[in-house]
């Protein structure tokens, strides 16, 4: 299906910061400053950027944790077969809608309630949305534990989070997230706090589940190599704006925007004989370009599906 | 000329749950001017090794056996006063998260001078300041930083200042324990560059500790892979990457995604790293080894065998892998 | 799925064992627990002794019992000038087993006779381990009664106080804004008030019984400083990812408050509870000592009676009227405090030395 699951247009999230104890000035921090992207059904988008670029803020806005300041988020509505803005949702409808979007967090140690056992943690979504009867729910928990590789499930259900390792806890988070069969999952660096040897198994699990359950991911990370492994398309964020967005292999082999080039060229390569060429970039210049453009920076399409934020396409190519 | 020789080092911590053998029979050498990498995951003991070298481990940790020969002298049994002379002016260390350990109410320059005063009590304040400015130039910091407070600096700047602090007493060997973990990849690249430059300019030896094998690949001449407190493979970096012999090393290499080259399907490892409290003899990697077969004998005590020029592997059958 | 219940039980047992081991490591905590257990046993000992008939209620009841203590006394006449060959100074006459003829108004006894008199308060003897007070009541029984009072009062007021402060603190953290501002100002106000003088004033207006005292202490404690501490703990919990996770799943505010935030604040609240028991017991003693409490028997009351009847100033002559009660208050409050210290090490892993 080439229909869009999610359409984001000009998403904005501003924070007001007061200027100090006695100052009346309030300055605005534009954490997310007008970003747009689409996520088709069955595809995954990677959101890559350094800390402070606005990717976590975007994640929280998309999962409806924090209200956005501006822009549109449109989600595909099953019943009307049409895109529907989430602004129109409230109350019971909003609660029902939440079944479609879930989030997996970065910290496996803080994303599970330490006083609940594993069974209750995974049961919670089913309880909140009153799905099936108690027996059905317990069976669902049992099955999903098997799916995420925590077998035998009886051993895990009565345990508490502190008895599990980081990797096992992330599997529990994944189980809890996917038990509702959401259509869209926001993943906020779920493997960055895990040991290297465990990461791949978690990522593979997520990829397999994405295929089986037809889930789309927005995968947030600062690590381009991980984004490459997990996503079909990658968007690069800098200072609250998307500077480049393209299909993964295209982006890596043919980066256009100077920031993207700098980013890619900074990544260490696990091969001692590889000679890495660093792309030099004057960051203050880049800051100026981006900050001074309070208007929307147009996204120019340089190739099919490959967009770059720039006023001057010819200059970059 | 070997600046550091570690022979059969053993260190354990006493805890309420039992003795944790954090470092088991670790041996390696670092030549003068070379860069040595120590790679492994969390809990493998690499930070414990670093701490033991300077005897900075926690109070309940003790070196139970082995030798650490720095610049020809065994420093294991030195008194605290003698150790203080070795620290910082012989071996210095950039800790994990060091950029957050600056005293927030004292200026950066003053904190570095404090360290220098310990080792060079006869130098004047001006001499020290001059030295600091020279170091700042090498690590890429502006002169004005010397009078700034830590909160005025960015993460990258703080880390560079930490490196300057580590260099302030002219050490011969620097240990860098995950110096760039919390930093963005662009800044990490800059810092790594600075470290390399410092090494060239000052002729320093470096021990680089990380869980990121890509960084180890770029930064080191020789390396060792650690698992559960032991070294499982050791040798020249290029050799190990081209010819990994131990199954754990192979798994590490196979589970690291890369942005260049073809997109390959990666291999993951089952299970979790073992608890260091277990007093198991023999191969502690056996439960997770993907190359296990009937002839594999996990009871066999681990021993390093040479499999290539200077390339040692600790495996029950090195030929197999 | 059958094994699940067994596994759950064994996990709980293991967790308890581990916590117990941690608690045992704290010497202070263990001393505290022994003390508390000792007094607890005392308080249940008394009804057992009565029920099993070992003790006769008529004699041993701490409030209305009466035990006759007869002793033979030699009638003497105390001289007007001292020292004499028999007595060194005035306080030596009459001696322990003597009685001054001038104090015998209703008797025909003459100097040199032996008379039998009721001796209250009586020193410790075989029937009364700690002796009797001036009304012939067994002191040991009184100590046990006081122990009951201390436990009931202490636990009641602590539970009430902790219940109130936990709920208020969590609400303040959760809802913020005006509710938070109000609750914080209220806490500040209560913190400013000196508790004991406040209790004096209250007792002047209304007759305070133990239950009333428990409620008052619990309420004041609950509205005071502990609200602030619990609120800060709740704030820390509120921003944890698992709370975000519950929100994204669709949980309501109330749901999250009660099932996620409260359980994580509870350990801290439990710690407070133990510490506030000490305050409750101490307050009761002070109030009883000043005679402001309408209570039949308590440790504070024992000391009050001793003081009012002038026995405190006779030094150690009537030690069994003062020492047992005073030491009981000290030890029990100390015991609870030490238990709190021990619990602190269990709940606060950072305090442990690895």
Note the main attributes of this structure:
heterotrimer; B: 321 residues; eight-stranded mixed sheet; four-stranded antiparallel sheet; 12 strands; 29% helix; C: 354 residues; mainly alpha; MetI-like fold; three-stranded mixed sheet
Description of the structure:
The complex is a heterotrimer of chains A (317), B (321) and C (354). Helix content of chain A is 35%, strand content 26%. With 317 residues, chain A is α/β, with parallel strands linked by helices. Chain A has an eight-stranded mixed β-sheet with strand order 6-7-8-3-9-10-12-11, sandwiched between helices. In chain A, strands 2-1-4-5 form a four-stranded antiparallel β-sheet. In chain A, helix 3 packs parallel to helix 6 (166-178). Chain A is globular. An eight-stranded mixed β-sheet of chain B has the order 6-7-8-3-9-10-12-11, with helices on both faces. Chain B has a four-stranded antiparallel β-sheet with strand order 2-1-4-5, with helices on one face. In chain B, helix 4 (125-139) packs across helix 5 (155-167). Chain C folds into two domains: 27-49 and 137-351, MetI-like (MetI-like fold), CATH 1.10.3720.10; 70-118, no CATH class. Chain C has twelve helices and three strands, in the order αααβββααααααααα. Chain C has helices at 2-25, 27-51, 57-60, 139-175, 177-192, 195-205, 210-223, 226-238, 241-249, 253-289, 299-308, 319-347, and strands spanning 70-76, 98-100, 114-118. In chain C, helix 1 crosses helix 12, helix 2 crosses helix 4 and helix 11 packs antiparallel against helix 12. The longest helix of chain C is centred in the middle third of the chain and has 37 residues, at 139-175. Chain C is elongated and about 95 Å long. Chains in contact: A-B, A-C, B-C. At the A-B interface, helix 7, helix 8 and helix 10 of A face helix 6, helix 7, helix 8 and helix 9 of B.
Task: Kindly summarize this structure in a few lines.
The complex is a heterotrimer of chains A (317), B (321) and C (354). Chain B is α/β, with parallel strands linked by helices.
């Amino acid at each position: 299906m080439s229909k869009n699951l999610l359409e984001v247009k000009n998403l904005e999230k501003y924070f007001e910061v007061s200027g100090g104890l006695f100052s009346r000035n309030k300055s605005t921090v534009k954490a997310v400053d007008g970003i747009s992207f689409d996520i088709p059904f069955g595809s995954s988008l990677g959101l890559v950027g350094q800390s402070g670029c606005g990717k976590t803020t975007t994640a929280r806005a998309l999962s409806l944790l924090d209200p956005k300041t501006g822009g549109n988020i449109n989600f595909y509505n099953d019943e009307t077969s049409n895109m529907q803005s989430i602004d129109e949702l409230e109350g019971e409808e909003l609660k029902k809608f939440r079944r479609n979007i879930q989030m997996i967090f970065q910290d496996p140690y803080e994303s599970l309630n330490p006083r609940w056992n594993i069974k209750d943690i995974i049961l919670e979504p089913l309880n909140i949305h009153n799905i099936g009867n108690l027996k059905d729910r317990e069976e669902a928990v049992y099955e999903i534990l098997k799916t995420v590789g925590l077998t035998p499930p009886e051993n895990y259900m009565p345990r508490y989070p502190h008895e599990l390792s980081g990797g096992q806890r992330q599997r529990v988070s994944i189980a809890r997230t996917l038990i509702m069969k959401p259509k869209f999952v926001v993943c906020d660096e779920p493997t960055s706090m895990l040991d290297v040897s465990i990461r791949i198994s978690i990522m593979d699990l997520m990829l397999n589940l994405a295929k089986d359950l037809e889930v789309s991911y927005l995968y947030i990370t600062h690590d381009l190599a991980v984004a490459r492994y997990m996503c079909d398309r990658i968007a690069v964020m800098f200072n609250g704006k998307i500077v480049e967005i393209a299909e993964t292999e295209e982006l890596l082999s043919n980066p256009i925007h100077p920031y993207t080039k700098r980013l890619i060229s900074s990544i260490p390569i696990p091969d001692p004989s590889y000679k890495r060429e660093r792309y030099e970039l004057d960051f203050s210049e880049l800051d100026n370009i981006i900050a001074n453009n309070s208007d929307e920076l147009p996204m120019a399409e340089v190739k099919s599906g490959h967009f770059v934020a720039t006023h001057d396409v010819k200059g970059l190519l | 000329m070997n600046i550091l020789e570690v022979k059969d080092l053993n260190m354990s911590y006493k805890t309420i749950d039992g003795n944790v053998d954090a470092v088991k029979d670790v041996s390696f050498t670092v030549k003068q001017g070379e860069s040595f990498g120590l790679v492994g995951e969390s809990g493998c003991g690499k930070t414990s090794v670093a701490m033991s070298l300077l005897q900075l481990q926690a109070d309940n940790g003790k070196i139970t056996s082995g030798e650490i020969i720095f610049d020809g002298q065994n420093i294991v049994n030195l008194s605290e006063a003698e150790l203080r002379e070795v620290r910082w002016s012989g071996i210095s260390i950039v800790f994990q998260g060091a950029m957050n350990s600056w005293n927030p109410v004292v200026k950066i320059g003053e904190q570095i001078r404090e360290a220098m005063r310990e080792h060079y009590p006869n130098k004047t304040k001006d001499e020290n300041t001059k030295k600091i400015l020279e170091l700042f130039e090498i690590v890429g910091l502006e002169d004005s930083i010397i009078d700034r407070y830590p909160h005025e600096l960015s993460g990258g700047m703080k880390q560079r200042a930490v490196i300057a602090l580590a260099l302030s007493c002219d050490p011969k060997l620097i240990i860098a324990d995950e110096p760039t973990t919390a930093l963005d990849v662009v800044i990490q690249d800059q810092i790594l560059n600075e470290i390399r430059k410092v090494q060239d300019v000052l002729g320093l030896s470096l021990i680089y500790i990380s869980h990121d094998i890509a960084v180890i690949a770029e930064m080191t001449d020789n390396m060792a892979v650690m698992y559960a407190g032991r070294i499982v493979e050791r040798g020249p970096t290029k050799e190990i990457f081209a010819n990994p012999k131990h199954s754990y090393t192979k798994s590490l290499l196979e589970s690291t995604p890369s942005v260049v080259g073809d997109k390959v399907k990666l291999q993951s490892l089952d299970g979790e790293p073992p608890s260091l409290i277990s007093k198991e003899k023999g191969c502690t990697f056996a439960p997770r080894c993907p190359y296990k077969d009937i002839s594999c004998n996990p009871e066999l005590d681990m021993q390093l065998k040479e499999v290539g020029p200077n390339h040692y592997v600790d495996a029950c059958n090195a030929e197999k892998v | 799925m059958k094994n699940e219940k067994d596994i759950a039980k064994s996990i709980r047992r293991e967790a308890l064992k581990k916590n117990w081991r941690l608690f045992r490591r704290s010497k202070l905590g263990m001393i505290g627990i022994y003390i508390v257990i000792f007094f607890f046993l005392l308080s249940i000992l008394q009804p057992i002794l009565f029920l099993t008939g070992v003790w006769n209620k008529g004699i041993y009841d701490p409030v209305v019992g009466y035990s006759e203590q007869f002793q033979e006394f030699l009638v003497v006449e105390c001289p007007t000038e001292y020292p004499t060959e028999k007595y060194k100074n005035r306080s030596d006459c009459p001696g322990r087993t003597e009685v001054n003829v001038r104090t015998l108004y209703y008797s025909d006894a003459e100097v040199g006779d032996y008379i039998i008199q009721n001796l209250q308060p009586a020193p410790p003897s075989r029937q009364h381990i700690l002796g009797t007070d001036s009304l012939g009541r067994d002191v040991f029984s009184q100590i046990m009664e006081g122990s009951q009072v201390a436990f009931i009062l202490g636990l009641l007021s602590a539970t009430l106080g902790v219940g109130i402060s936990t709920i208020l603190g969590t609400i303040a953290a959760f809802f913020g804004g005006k509710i938070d501002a109000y609750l914080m100002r209220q806490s500040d106000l209560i913190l400013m008030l000196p508790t004991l003088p406040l209790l004096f004033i209250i007792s002047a207006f209304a007759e305070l019984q133990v239950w009333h005292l428990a409620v008052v202490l619990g309420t004041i404690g609950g509205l005071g400083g502990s609200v602030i501490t619990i609120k800060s703990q709740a704030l820390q919990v509120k921003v944890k990812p698992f709370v975000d996770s519950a929100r994204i799943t669709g949980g309501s505010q109330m749901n999250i408050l009660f099932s996620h935030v409260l359980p994580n604040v509870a350990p801290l609240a439990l710690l407070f509870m133990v510490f506030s028991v000490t305050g409750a017991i101490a307050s009761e003693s002070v109030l009883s000592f000043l005679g402001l409490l309408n209570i039949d028997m308590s440790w504070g009351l024992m000391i009050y009676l001793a003081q009012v009847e002038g026995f405190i100033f006779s030094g150690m002559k009537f030690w069994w009227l003062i020492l047992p009660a005073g030491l009981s208050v000290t030890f029990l409050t100390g015991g609870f405090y030490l238990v709190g210290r021990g619990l602190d090490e269990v709940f606060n892993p950072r305090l442990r030395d690895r």
